[in-house]
Design brief:
One of its GO terms (biological process) is regulation of DNA-templated transcription. The chain is about 40% helix and about 15% strand. It is an alpha/beta fold. The structure holds adenosine-5'-triphosphate and magnesium ion.
């Protein structure tokens, strides 16, 4: 059994063989110093792929879809894939696309050991270039290597491959939207549309028509019939963000859609059959919302066929340097600035900070730091840490006693601009609007351009 360490990717020559390979070739690989693990396609997991530098994958026209799903879901690992095929299989455009999209190389069977050894050696060398040991999703941009995060990714790729509704639960800024994309990308629907709707930001009088569409004349201003988001996502995936904010009326229609797979456009009577997969996300405890009678229990059970929880950043702080490095690279490139590094003091502080805004807050602080830093080092002050944050955050300290004050101050400082104000306190726009509604605050009163 391969040991669980991603250092293997750079060091020991570990190989995963998926599917049959003639015993003499396998023996030859072992004799050449390869640590070989053989698995069937259905036995392979993301975690397994983290442990090998090279994967030999037997691809046939029959299981090409399964192979694609596997390679998609394992795109978070460093493993370099070499496809093993019969020559005739290259006639199949799906096989060619798979090799082209995911594989480092391919070999036509029967492959002699003398031919395979240089190919796997080269693939191993290329995998080693990916060090330091970071795990990156080539598909959805989810970064992380903490065991809790890897377990979450593995759960996500498992449910992603199944055609079921998924409920994502995570605090603000943990990456729910990225996770929903990942689920879509892992699925057989990957090439079909993916739409994302924030249920909290839909105007109450428009929710029904936005989600389910409308017929001509359904309401004043409905000059034409229009498809809603569910119809638009036919064949693909619809991501319903902040599902806890969905109106009672829309919940009823959504339940019918999940039960029957049909919708009725607003103002219409015809049942339209739609095949859209629903991935929903929430940061609130829906069980509590059910007790509060603001969320339907029957809908909850339909949505959470599979539930996946995203770990907050404070529970995977060992990922912080990796994420910070990624955001420094991203924003230095975006703004044409030289790459800078975190000061020791900044890193120390960040490793004890509870990150209420999670990865989004980290991203925003790094972005701010890169812009503000005078030299080549990001200090705590550059990133907006005032000194009182250790062990708590501006928003968290004030939560309960001063959440409203924090919102009012950020709006006042930013002239009513919700984007800037949300960024200032380290929450997403969606969360910011939710908090405004909770406290009954209107940003209009802070806009200087209004008399
Ligand atoms: N694991 C991660 N790796 C890289 N970037 C991440 C990761 N998680 C989140 N991000 C980044 O953090 C930001 C917030 O992510 P996202 O919008 O998916 O979070 P969210 O949970 O939907 O937040 P909210 O509840 O506030 O809407 C995005 O810019 C995203 O790219
Ligand atoms: Mg979101």
């Amino acid at each position: 059994m391969l040991k669980e360490t991603s250092a293997r990717v750079c060091g020991a020559r570990s190989m995963l063989i998926i599917g049959e390979l003639v015993p003499s070739v396998t023996d030859g690989l072992v004799q050449a110093g390869w640590q070989v693990l053989r698995k069937k396609l259905e036995e392979v997991s993301v975690a397994l792929c983290q442990q090998a530098s090279v994967g030999l994958l037997r691809v046939t026209s029959v299981d090409v879809v399964e192979c694609r799903r596997l390679l998609l879901s394992c795109s978070t690992s460093h493993i370099r894939w070499i496809a093993l095929l019969d020559g005739a299989e290259l006639e199949d455009s799906r096989v060619r696309a798979l090799v082209n999209d995911f594989c480092f190389d391919y070999c036509v069977l029967p492959v002699p050991l003398a031919h395979l050894l240089p190919a796997v050696g080269h693939a191993h060398g290329m995998a080693g270039l990916c060090c330091p040991e970071r795990v990156r999703s080539g598909v959805s941009g989810l970064l992380g290597e903490h065991p809790a995060f890897l377990a979450f990714l593995e759960d996500l790729s498992r449910v992603g491959m199944m055609n079921v509704s998924v409920l994502l639960h995570g605090e603000t800024g943990t990456g729910k939207e990225l996770a929903a994309r990942f689920v879509h990308d892992c699925s057989a629907r990957a090439k079909a549309p993916f739409f994302s709707v924030n249920c909290g930001s839909l105007a109450p009088n428009l929710v029904q028509s936005e989600l389910f569409g409308n017929e001509k004349g359904a309401f004043t201003g409905a000059h034409d019939k229009r498809a809603g988001y569910i119809e638009a996502a036919d064949g693909g995936t619809l991501f319903l963000d902040e599902i806890g904010d969905m109106s009672a009326e829309a919940q009823v229609s959504m339940l019918r859609f999940l039960q029957e797979g049909t919708i009725i456009r607003l103002g219409g009577s015809k049942h339209l059959k739609i095949d859209a997969r629903i991935v929903a996300a929430t940061h609130v405890d829906l069980a509590q919302s059910i007790r509060d009678r603001t969320f339907r229990e029957d809908l909850y059970h339909r949505l959470r066929v599979c539930q996946v929880c995203i770990p907050p950043l404070r529970e995977r702080l060992s990922d912080l340097p990796l994420l910070a490095g990624h955001f420094i690279e991203k924003y230095a490139c975006k703004f044409g600035l030289p790459e800078k590094r975190l000061s020791k003091e900044a890193l120390g502080l960040m490793l004890t900070y509870p990150w209420p805004g999670n990865v989004r807050e980290l991203e925003n602080r790094i972005c701010q730091g890169l812009i503000m830093a005078r030299g080549c080092v990001l200090t705590p002050a550059d990133m907006g840490f005032g000194g009182a944050e250790q062990g708590s955050s501006p928003l968290q300290v004030q939560r309960g006693t001063g959440e409203k004050t924090s919102l009012l101050q950020s709006l006042a400082i930013n002239g009513g601009d919700c984007n800037l104000a949300a960024r200032e306190i380290g929450v997403s726009r969606a969360t910011f609007y939710r908090l405004l509604a909770k406290h009954g605050i209107s940003p209009r009163q802070f806009r200087k351009d209004l008399s």
